[in-house]
Design goal:
- The complex is a heterodimer of chains A (546) and B (116).
- With 546 residues, chain A is of the alpha+beta class.
- Chain A has helices spanning 8-38, 42-50, 75-83, 89-93, 97-100, 151-154, 161-171, 177-194, 202-209, 285-289, 310-314, 438-441, 444-454, 513-540, and strands spanning 103-104, 111-112, 140-142, 145-148, 253-254, 257-258, 324-329, 343-345, 351-354, 358-363, 369-373, 377-379, 392-397, 407-421, 426-427, 463-473.
- Chain A has 14 helices and 16 strands.
- Chain B is mainly alpha-helical and 116 residues long.
- Chain B is built from five helices and no strands.
- Chain B has helices spanning 2-24, 32-48, 66-74, 84-89, 92-104.
- Chain B is elongated, with a radius of gyration of 19 Å.
- Classes of the chains: A alpha+beta (546), B mainly alpha (116).
Chain lengths: 546, 116
C-alpha cells in the first residue's frame, strides 16, 4: 500500500482558520452572555429613574395641633379645623369630579357623570345624588350637603365617624355615669383618629374604588381588596416586594384633581414620557417606561408599542385573586320568600341572587376582551335613544386602527339586563334605596317613575328589559415579565386573543393568498438560484484543485 | 253628641292601638346604643387579657336572627362569645342593653348591622 501524501499546507491553513474562528466566537459568546446578564430593559431603567425610593417627609405632626384636640360634635367641625391651616383645600376639592360627580358633555342639555345623565349596568344611576345608597362613597360628611370629609382620603385610621357623631348626639344630656364614660371614650376615639393624617393610602382610595358597584370587585375587574396588599405575581407596581407604589404614585394630583379619570376624554391628553417632559403626568405606562420599553432598542416587541397597549400583554388575566362580577340580570329581581327578600350564595361564596338586585355571575382569572382604544369611551345616557332589538353598549371604548392615538387594549365587559322605556326607547334610572326605592317597594314601575323624576326625564309608564354591556379598561394587576403573553396567544390561526380585531393583517393569525404567493415565489427563487449557482460551479470545475 | 262619640271612639282606638303595640313588641327594651358600647368594652377587656384575638367583636348582631339571639339570652348561654369572666361580671341591666343591641340589629331585623 502506498503512503498517502500529506498536504501540510492545507492542514496549517485549516488550523489557522479554526483558531481565528475560535478567537473571534468564544469571547464574543461570553461577552454577550455577560451583557444579557446585566442588561436591563430600557423601559425598566427609565422607570427606576423616574420613581426612586419614596422620600416624602412631613414637617407637621397632627397629633400636636391644638385645634385637633377639641371635642368635636360633627364632621363639619373637623373640616373647619383642617381648613384653619389648609385654607383652600375644601374649595379646590369641591371643584373636582370626586365631589361633583359630574362631567360636562359636548351634547347640549346633557351632564355626564354619576350625578348626571350617565347610567351603568350595575345599580344603574346615582339619580342626581338622590339615591342615598350611593352617597356612602361621596367624600362629604353628609352627602353633598355641608363640608368635605378630608379624612376619607387623608385619615390613616379607619374610624366610623358617622356612628360616633350619631351616638354622641343621642347621649347628649344623659348624666348617667356610664353614659358619660362612653361619651368620653367616643371623643377620645375621634381625637385619636383625627390626629392620624396621611397622604392617601391604598385603603383610602380602595374604600370606594375597590368596592364600586356595591361590593368587593363588583365593578372593576382589576381593582378589588386583593390590591390592598398584592404580591408581585398580582401587581409588580404595588407589591411590597416589587415597587410598593401607593395609588398616588401614578395618580398624581393638581389642586385635588386626581390624574387617571377617563370617560369621554382620555386620562392623559398626550402620550409623553418624563424624558420628553419632566412635568408630564405619571398616569400612562409610557410616562415612566417610554415607548421603547423592551430590551434592545430593535426588539420586535418594541415594534408593537404604536399599536398594542402595554396592558394587553402584561395583564394576561384580571380578577386573579378575588372574583369579579361579570353578569347582572335585573329581570330576575323582586322574587320574595314568605314575603321577604332573600339572598342565594354560590361559587366563591358570592351572592348569585339577591331579591333586591337580581341574578349575578362571578368569574375569576378572566381573559380580557380587546378593542381599539384611544383613551375615551362612548356612552349611552338616559336621554339617548336606543335600539332595544340589539345589545345596548352603555359604555364602549372608542378607537380606530387608523388613529395614531389608538392602541389595542384589554377590557372587562360587564354584561346584564336592565330596564328601559318601551315607548320612548331610552334607558331608565330607577330609584333603588330609601323608603320609596325599589329595594323597599319591589315596584319597578314606581321606582323608574321616581328615579327619572330626579333627573327631570320623562317616563312613558311602560318598561321592559334590554341586554347591555359596560366596558372597563384593564390597567392594574400588571403581572411579572415572565407571565406576559407569548406571541402565539395572538399570532395564531385558531383562538387568537385578537380574533375580534378585524380589518388588519396580523401575521400568524391571518393569511393572504397574495402575500403567501410572493413568499413562495421568493423561497423557490432563492432555491433555484442556489441550485443554478452550485451546478454552474460543479460543471465548470471552478475552485477544484488541479 | 255625634262629635263627642267620634272623639271618644278615636281616643279608645288610639289607646288600644298603643297598648297592643307595646305588648306586641317581643324584643328586649334595654338601651341598644349603650349595649353596643358595653359589648365592645367586654371584648376589648377580654382581648387585653389575651383571651381573644381581636379587640373588635367577632360576632356581629347580623350574624344571627332575632329568634336565635332570644334563645341565647333567655338561656343565658354566652359560651359562644368566650370571655366568660367578663360576661359573669356584667349586671342585669348591662346584659339587657347588649341583648337589645344584638336583637335590634339582627339579620332579620328591619335594620341589620353592617360593617360600616
Amino acid at each position: 500500500m502506498g503512503k498517502k501524501k500529506i498536504n501540510y499546507r492545507k492542514q496549517i491553513f485549516g488550523s489557522i482558520l479554526v483558531i481565528i474562528f475560535a478567537a473571534l466566537i468564544i469571547p464574543g459568546a461570553f461577552a454577550s452572555k455577560q451583557v444579557s446578564g446585566n442588561e436591563e430593559a430600557l423601559g425598566i431603567k427609565l422607570a427606576k429613574q423616574a420613581v426612586r425610593a419614596n422620600k416624602r417627609w412631613t414637617t407637621t405632626d397632627h397629633a400636636k395641633i391644638e385645634i385637633l384636640k377639641q371635642d368635636f360634635k360633627s364632621g363639619d367641625e373637623i373640616t373647619q379645623a383642617c381648613l384653619s391651616c389648609h385654607t383652600d383645600a375644601s374649595m379646590q376639592f369641591k371643584e373636582t369630579i370626586h365631589w361633583t360627580w359630574e362631567v360636562p358633555s359636548e351634547k347640549e342639555g346633557i351632564m355626564n357623570g354619576k350625578a348626571g345623565h350617565a347610567i351603568n349596568n350595575f345599580c344603574i344611576s346615582g339619580n342626581n345624588m338622590e339615591d342615598k345608597g350611593c352617597l356612602s362613597c361621596h367624600a362629604g360628611w353628609n352627602g353633598t350637603k355641608g363640608e368635605v370629609n378630608c379624612l376619607a382620603c387623608h385619615g390613616s385610621e379607619k374610624f366610623n365617624y358617622k356612628e360616633a357623631f350619631e351616638d354622641l348626639n343621642a347621649f347628649e344630656g344623659d348624666d348617667d355615669p356610664d353614659t358619660l364614660e362612653i361619651t368620653k371614650e367616643i371623643q377620645a376615639g375621634i381625637q385619636s383618629a383625627v390626629s392620624k393624617i396621611t397622604m392617601p393610602q391604598r385603603e383610602n382610595c380602595g374604600e370606594c374604588h375597590f368596592k364600586g358597584g356595591g361590593g368587593d370587585g363588583v365593578k372593576h375587574g382589576d381593582l378589588d381588596t386583593s390590591m390592598a396588599q398584592p404580591n408581585k405575581n398580582l401587581d409588580v407596581h404595588m407589591a411590597a416586594e416589587g415597587a410598593n407604589f401607593a395609588c398616588t404614585r401614578c395618580h398624581t394630583t393638581v389642586r385635588h384633581n386626581i390624574a387617571g379619570r377617563l370617560y369621554t376624554r382620555p386620562a392623559a391628553a398626550e402620550r409623553k414620557s418624563l424624558i420628553d417632559d419632566d412635568m408630564a403626568s405619571k398616569i400612562t405606562c409610557e410616562s415612566c417606561h417610554s415607548n421603547l420599553p423592551h430590551k434592545k432598542a430593535d426588539s420586535k416587541m418594541n415594534d408593537h408599542t404604536d399599536k398594542v397597549a402595554c396592558q394587553s400583554c402584561h395583564i394576561p388575566e384580571f380578577a386573579r385573586v378575588n372574583p369579579t362580577k361579570m353578569w347582572w340580570d335585573w329581570t330576575k329581581a323582586g322574587d320574595l320568600k314568605d314575603g321577604k327578600p332573600y339572598v342565594v350564595k354560590g361559587e366563591f361564596n358570592k351572592p348569585t341572587y339577591k331579591s333586591i338586585k337580581g341574578e349575578f355571575r362571578w368569574e375569576k382569572n378572566v381573559m380580557p376582551e380587546y378593542f381599539w382604544y384611544n383613551g375615551s369611551f362612548s356612552n349611552i345616557g338616559i336621554k339617548d335613544e336606543i335600539d332595544p332589538a340589539s345589545i345596548v353598549e352603555v359604555s364602549h371604548p372608542l378607537g380606530d386602527k387608523n388613529d395614531p392615538d389608538s392602541r389595542i387594549a384589554p377590557f372587562k365587559i360587564h354584561r346584564g339586563k336592565q330596564p328601559y322605556d318601551k315607548i320612548y326607547k331610552r334607558m331608565v334610572a330607577p330609584l333603588l334605596s330609601g323608603p320609596n326605592g325599589y329595594w323597599t317597594t319591589f315596584d319597578m314601575n314606581d321606582a323608574i317613575t321616581r328615579g327619572n323624576k330626579t333627573l327631570d326625564v320623562d317616563y312613558s309608564g311602560e318598561f321592559d328589559y334590554v341586554e347591555t354591556t359596560y366596558a372597563f379598561p384593564i390597567t392594574h394587576m400588571v403581572a411579572p415579565e415572565e407571565k406576559a403573553l407569548d406571541c402565539n396567544e395572538c399570532h395564531i390561526r385558531e383562538n387568537s386573543r385578537l380574533a375580534n380585531i378585524t380589518g388588519i393583517y396580523l401575521p400568524g393569525r391571518d393569511r393572504s393568498n397574495f402575500i403567501d404567493s410572493i413568499g413562495l415565489i421568493a423561497v423557490l427563487g432563492a432555491f433555484a438560484g442556489v441550485m443554478l449557482h452550485g451546478f454552474g460551479r460543479f460543471f465548470t470545475r471552478n475552485g477544484k484543485e488541479e | 253628641m255625634f262629635k263627642k262619640t267620634l272623639i271618644t271612639c278615636i281616643l279608645v282606638m288610639f289607646s288600644l292601638g298603643t297598648i297592643s303595640a307595646a305588648f306586641a313588641s317581643e324584643g328586649p327594651n334595654g338601651n341598644k346604643r349603650k349595649g353596643k358600647y358595653t359589648y365592645r368594652k367586654v371584648v376589648k377587656a377580654c382581648f387585653e387579657r389575651g383571651e381573644v384575638d381581636s379587640a373588635t367583636p367577632k360576632i356581629s348582631p347580623a350574624d344571627k336572627k332575632q329568634a336565635e339571639w332570644k334563645a341565647i339570652f333567655e338561656e343565658k348561654n354566652f359560651g359562644e362569645f368566650g370571655c366568660a369572666q367578663d360576661w359573669a361580671a356584667l349586671n342585669e341591666k348591662d346584659v339587657l342593653d347588649i341583648y337589645s343591641y344584638l336583637y335590634n340589629f339582627a339579620a332579620d331585623s328591619p335594620t341589620p348591622a353592617t360593617c360600616k
